[in-house]
Structures are given as structure tokens and as C-alpha cells.
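[scheduler] slot 2 assigned
[scheduler] job type: sequence-to-structure, two independent chains
[scheduler] chain ordering preserved from manifest
[runner] begin chain α
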Amino acid sequence: MEVNDNIKKNRDFAIQAVFSFILLVITAAIVSKLIFAEDSDYNIHSISVLQGTFWDNGYPLWHFGVWVLYKLFRIPVEFASPIFSGLINVIVYSIICFYIRKHCPVIPELLAFCLCFMTAIYVPWYNASIYIGQGSPVCWHNPTTLMVKPFSYIIFFMTVVFLEERGDERSWKHYLPAAILALISMLAKPSFFQGFVPALGFYMLIDLFSKYKGKVGQWFSENYRICLVFLPSALLIVGQLSIWFNRDTALGGGIGIKWGYAVSKFTPNIFISALLTYFFPLMFLIIYFKKILSDVKLKLAYVFALVTWIEANLLYEKGERYYHGNFIWAGQIALSLLWLVTTIEFFKEYKDADNNNKPALIKTRTLLIIWLVHLTCGFIYAGQMLFIKDLYY
């Protein structure tokens, strides 16, 4: 038995290594194209590494990683950026693979690889671009969004554990690693914090009335430690906002509130674009609503997705940067987490489906078709990023 387990582990490791290498090559190839595209995010951020001006950036973690390869290992920036980004994407893939293997041991290496490509449904006569207007759980063109993803996955699942363990006596050391990771994630990109903390607060507020029946004392005593995890990050984001976000008066500054003001510049209809982006998670929500209500990670993921979708449509940067749509990033991070947890739970349902239960089979097979449609569009998107000369988003 032990020999068979070792063989299986070695086989799984080999499969994961192959998929990791493929993802590394694809990521590096896309970044190698984007780095030479004028005004693309990779071009702008790589130039800041080359010029050494990234230290003045509010979230320089990706830049620092590329700078290490550039300065210490003498790798030119045009190669260091693709290599480092590819490695980060492999880390993201490995984390996804770990959680799928832990919660749903159904071809985890393949499912994790597929989730690294998943995107919105592409309807050419509606959305000329797969990405623009819809967004995506996979963002090929933005290095800082990629950089924060490993932290977002780990912090999300640590928070799920904290929520499941509420009421248990735990020392502060139990929460310290999450606090440190949350703080570091701010140096990668504050977008995860910007969306996740309001979503967590909303989740806890719902719990106050559903789980705790309005008992504020018990609710506070069992939740305040989780809130303290994000206190250092909250202090840091205040500094980031005051020092970096509001200083560029030439481009405007500050946050505006108006429904659809920025997002509507990229899509003919906000709700149709949302449907194309969230179609699989929405269908999963409808079919397995009761299951979601009893599962902490699913509930938190859906609340995270909802709050960040509202943020993206309600908030915008004042001045010339309004069209940058910088409040969409949190939604894309939330979407990637939502795809992970719904995929895990869906394939558990698919594996356990009774072949004699026709309604159950119809549900699972319909969802599988939708899942595969999203995946096909994701492969098309990656192919476009690789092979269409003037496509940078």
C-alpha cells in the first residue's frame, strides 16, 4: 500500500510539473509580447524597474522580484519580467492544485490548470473583446494583479478556517501568519484588501442576524480576532491612499461615486456583461443554493464576488484616470476565488451523481457544458493574447 501511495504521489508530482512548465512557457510568452507594447501595463511597470523608479510605487512587490533577477542575476528586464511573472503564475497554479487535491481529489492537476485559463463567455457580436467590458478571473496583462493572487488564495482559505472555528479558544499566534500575509499582500496590490475586507464585514453582519440571532456580545467576542488580522493592513492602505493615490493632481484624484460611470465606457450593458462573466457561478448558485447556505467558503466567495462587483460599478477614480477602471481588480480576484470553490464543489457533485437520478444528471451535465464553454473561451483568450499582434488586453 505504501509503495502504491508513493507511486501515485510521484505520478501526481510529474503531472503537476508538466502542467507547471506549460503554464510557465505560455505566461512568459504572453508577457514577452506585452512588455514591448507601448503603454501596456507590463511595458510601464518594466520600465519603472529599468529606471529604478518603482520604489516610489505604493505596491512594489512585483517590481522588486523582477529587480532582483535584473540586478543580482544580471538577467535583462525584457527577460526577467516574463520569467518572474511565469514563476508567480506557477505558484498560483500550485496553490489552486493544493486546494483542489485537498477538497476534491478529482484530476486536481488538470482542473487547476484549466482554472488558470477560465474566463467570461465570448459572444463576438456582443463583446468584440473577450476581456474588455466583462473582466476575467484570469488577467494576463496586469503584473500586480498576478502578484497579489497567491496571497489572496491563502488569506481567503485561512479566513474560512477562522470563520469555521469561531467560538474555539485560540491564541493570537493562530492569527499572526494571516495578518503578516495580508500586510505583504498590500505591497503586491491593495485591491484584494479593498474588496475582501468590506465583503468579510458584510458576511459578518449577515451572521449577526442569521447565526447569532442579534446577540451582539457573542457575535463580537467570536469575531473581533478575525477583524484584528486586517488591522495592520488597514493602517497601511490609509498611508497608500494618502501618499500615492491622491498625490497626482495633474490627473485628478480622489474617489467618485456614480453607478456605472467607469465600467459603462467598456460595455454596452453592464448586466449582460456580468451574465457572460458569472454565468457558471450563477447557475451553480441557482441549482445548489441550499448547499451554498451551509458552506462557509462558498458563502464567503459569493459575498466577496457580489461586493466587489458593486464596488467596480459604483466607484471610480476622479479625473483623467476614471477610464482606467482600477476598481475592477478586486472583482477579478474575487471571481478567481469564486471559480475555484464552485469548481471544487461542482466536481464533487458530478463525481457523486447517481446515474439513475435523471434530474441530478441533467443538472450536473448542464453545468459541465457551461463550465467547458467558459474554458473554451479562456483558451481562445490566451491564444489571442499570444498570436494577435495588436491585442494587449
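[runner] end chain α
[runner] begin chain β
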Amino acid sequence: MKFITPLTIALLLSVSCIGQSIYTPKIIDQLSKLRHLLVKDSTELLKLQETTSKWGDAQFQSDEFYGAVKTVGELKRQFNFEDEYILKKVYKRFESIGIEKYITASDIQVISNSIELLHLVFESIFHSNHPYSLNPEPKIFKELEFYDIKPKDRLLYIEGGTGMVPLLICMINEGVNLTLSIPNGKLLFEMSEQLRMVESNINIENVKTGNWEMEEEVYDRIIVRNVFHHLKNKKSKLNTLHSALSQNGELIILEPDASSNKANTICPKSMELTKIISTIENANFQLLDQLKQSKHYQLLKFQKI
């Protein structure tokens, strides 16, 4: 393959700790192509290096710092707010981690321009330093294993991020029928462009969070990633998701746990884990499994009953 290098061999030898091999030669080839697409020209790359060199390895392991970078990227990319406004919002929300030492006005456009690559770096798909080579043990693969997606699954994926996770889902699970539910139209377009880089059966649909209309029993799995705590009228939304799932279908939630983050640096609207579980179980779901995804985030798998 064009992009297969000696790194391929090293990666294939190192995935035994993950269990069933996810890093196949084809996926390595696709991720390598994606890296080439996301790494900007030399000028942009130099600016990105200058920005991230101030952060250090510890920041790439921090949920709070990742949240700050995501917030900067979203406020600039999606809404094109003024830099001064973005800094004011981010400095206030992430004051407890001293974010002003790491992100300044000159970094905002750089972060926005490279937010897709930064997501993959924070998820440890790529290393944090140039040349941003593939990491043999990305933490997000544990999350993808937790989903346990089967061939030809009908999957609804709901999030407000950059689309990197559904991109990986399509790479790893050929033939999955993926529907995206994204509240922001511009973001949906950008995600669809990224997903078209992967040869998969992808059904892209914008289901607005304010008016969810879904047919009954059309999905085998529904993934709600870092969105649940933002939803208004959760009981009604859960009833809609319950109806849209097939018999014994699964609802998978990734959420920040407020009980592990008393300073609310992740999101002021985040809920305590026990409250998340009880809210969902009260909507006729049964908790099947849970996994601590990172310091403050929990993965929860429920079955429709």
C-alpha cells in the first residue's frame, strides 16, 4: 500500500494488548491518508507546532485541557466569534487549570484551523509532536471496542463534536449503516466531507435536537456522545430513542461525571453518574455495562426493555 511503512509492522505487533486486532493494514493505510489530509501546509504546521509546544505532554492527558481546546475550536469554527470574546469565555470556564498560560489570542485561529487533527492527537490516535505519527495504543480504541458494533448494524450517532469518532467507526466496521444526528448545520457539512473520505455505507441525516422525529425500531444501536447533559426535556428524548431502537437494542452514552469534577471544569451542565443512570433506567432501559473512559468521563451501555 502507498502509505504502509515500517511503522505498519510495529503497529501490528503492538496491538495484542487491545485484544482483537483493530489496527489492520487497511485501517493503518486509511489513518495515514487521513493524517496526510489533516496536516496543513508547512506554514500552518509550523504555527501548530509553536502553539502545542507550550502545552506539554501532561496537558494532552487532561480532560479539562482537551475541553478548553475543543471549546476554542468550536466557538471559532462554528460561530466565528471574536477572539476577545472566545478568550473571555474560555478563561472564565477553565480558570481552575490556569488556561491563560497556554492559550492566547494568537493561538485561536491555529486551533480552529487544525481542530480535527488536534482531536485525533488528544484521543491519542496520533502522537502529540511533529510528524504526528500513528500511536500504537490509542485510548479511544477501548471506547470503540465497548460499542461492540456488529456488521450491518443500523447505528444512530448523536454528538456535537468534529465527527472523528464516527469516521473511525466507519473505518473499523465496514458496511455499518450510520446515521448522524448533529444540531449544527455547518458542522454536519464538515463532518460529511470527512466521512466521504472513507468507503462506507453512510446515511447522513440532521435530526435537530429541538424536534426529534424518528420512526419506530429503525436502529440497533444509538450512541449519544457528550450530549446528554445538554438535552432539554430528557424524558421525552429518551422515550423517542427507546421507540427508535429495535427489540433489545442498545443505547450507549458517553458523559462527564460531575461527581468526579466538583469544580465543573468540563461543563456546568454535567450530571452526577448516579443521576445519569437513574434518569435513563426510568425510561425503560437496563444498565448492561459501564467503563471509565478517562478521569472524568464514563461510558454507559443500556438495553431497551
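[runner] end chain β
[qc] chain β: Residues 158 and 224 are 5 Å apart (CA to CA).
[scheduler] slot 2 released
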